[in-house]
Amino acid sequence: MVVWNFTSNGCGMIFFKRFIFFQLLTVFLFAEFEKDLQLKLILAEPGDTIKLDAGLFPILGTLSMEGKENIVIKGSGINSTILSFSNQVEGAQGLSITNCHNITLENFTIEDAKGDGIKCQYVNGIIFRRIKVQWLGGPNTLNGAYGLYPVQCENILIEHCVSIGASDAGIYVGQSNNIIVRYCEAYNNVAGIEIENSIKADVYSNNVHHNTGGILVFDLPDLLIKEGRQIRIFDNLIKENNLDNFAPKGNIVGKVPSGTGIMIMATEQVEVFKNTIIDNKTAGTTVVSYFITEEETKDTQYNPYTSAIYIHDNVYWRQSQLPTLDHEIGILLFMHFFRNVPDIIYDGMPDPKYFSRDGTIPVNRKLCLKNNSNASYLNLDISSNFESWYSPFFADFSMDEKECDCMQDPLSEVNLPLFD
Amino acid sequence: MKVARKLVLYFCFTSFIFAFNSIFDHAHTYLSEYDFFEKPLKKHNPKANVIPYKIASPLFSDYAGKMRFISVPVGTKISYDTEHNFIYPENTFLIKTFFYFSDIRNMQSKKRLIETRVLKNTSSGWIALPYVWNENQTDAVLSLAGDRITSSWTHYDGKTIEILYSVPNMNQCKNCHAFNNIQQPIGPKIRNLNLDFTYSDEIQNQLNKWISIGILDSLPDFKTIPRTVDYNNHKDGTVNERARAWLDINCAHCHSRGRPAETSGLYLDYEEMNQTALGILKSPIAAGRGSGGRKYNIVPGHPEKSILEYRINSIDPGIMMPELNRKLVHKEGLELIQTWIKEMAPLEK
Q: How far apart are CA A238 and CA B294, in angstroms?
């Protein structure tokens, strides 16, 4: 194994002069650090560890690794190695990893990328460990979309990571398989953690706070990988996700109401349990179909409904407070409930393909609620209550939790054989 | 100073680079070592088995001019599959040099070569090697990590443009050239080559020429071979054909099935027929601020409401498309796309 180290070449004075010189040139030229690191990413051989020294390093273009196997990129600490992209002139991502196998990223920060922080595509086996992606200056529409962004990957482990300020999702896993997200913190993002069009994910023991929406599980149309399923969300702290939505318009996440704890949309087989869901002002948990977005789709293979959702053993707690008034659903809740909105909101749109002859849905395809503490329930029943724009304001919504009083088999645990 | 820095860099790395990296089984350090051209190298007078070619609709690269050459090993031929895709023999080279005239309107003005990209078809697939020209224009040196080069010229409107031209690194080459994770040439598709070229001795259709000099298997139904229109030429096709040609060469290397931007569900290749996949009233997936506050990729009749238009009209790295290798808006291409969207009939819902 070869270990490359970014240290000074030891020629004290010469190095110092060079250092000053390159500092001055940094804004315009290809800084040596960046070029060296990029070259190492290109030439890395299986088994290599690429080490990054402590320091703040300005980077002007996307760093990329392509077609590699068994590589570790290791900084000297989550807060001590900082790659800053605030002057980025080319490429949308900070770090891009494509078409790789067994890659570990550890102990560094990516800051102010123009687009996504770290994007991984076609990677089988990717570990993010103690990685921070942030946009300085707080929530801003001009921030990049995703912090950690594995898409079309397999066997993903994201742990002890931090994401701050993403204008879409801080930690976003899309069109992927076999995923664990744990011990992470996400705040000041539009969505804290989002699992989209993905199969088999365990999202647990994360601290997700002060985002617009805490944890989202979505299936979207017109994508190659559809039918996301088997997602477990457990042991998370999901608190005060009441940030105003600052997603650029046109993005689906822009439709998430401020004050959403967990949102499950158009997907199936999701188990939400043992979470602590506190003071999310609009909805602790919502379970909705794609129709809620009021977007149309021509994707005939897309299933816009939710089914087999099991929410149990969670602790809800919500101070009496106004829901968001920036969103139609918030206004509707405000009109009906003023400051005491329900915790679990269902749009009442079961998947019609599971209707049995007597018009009921079998238990294993229902929304089931069990043993949640302090949880009140609301069924919007949008198919009968939303015929015209004013009708929901006069509707008599069901709040009878008994219609969801059922249990489902627990989903199985995600195993990442590569890393244990 | 620059040369000195490069030398330092080389001495730092050569010691271990050459020891174990397979790239260097295929790559020469200097372009001159390949022996593609007569001396002086910068004139690009090709040697016997190096054939110049052009493509119907080229990728926009910040108004850089391009010289393209192909070299097929003596005694071997390019064949093609049932879908008219070329199958190149091993050790085929595609060579492309990017340059600027000091005055873009005047082909006699001083020509400065910037970079040469060499694509080699090895036994394990294509590899892409970027070479950067030295200041004296005597040779180009392998720059796997890419480079940034200040370039300036007098533009069509008489104004001077200065940009930090970016030479892609080896990975970025692959990001565009990968199809199902295997690198492929982008430009020389059969329908992109089906046009006349002025050779030193004759004007001839390029495919015919390649057949006659024995580097290409004869094609079955020559007349049925499609041809991409030249998007720059108003007379060469309808707005739709020209716009689709522009999108194909500028976008589809990522935005089509099996390619890196397939995650977006937006497919812009010449052959795409699905209206939603083409972006018509399609919501963005991971556009972030690239959406520019617009709701759909294409709103027929309304370029000013279409994300596609917004992104090709931007030079902000977090917004612009294509993502790489562009510091300027392709004004002519933008106008074409604007016209195309404007003239598009509204879809019936």
A: 31
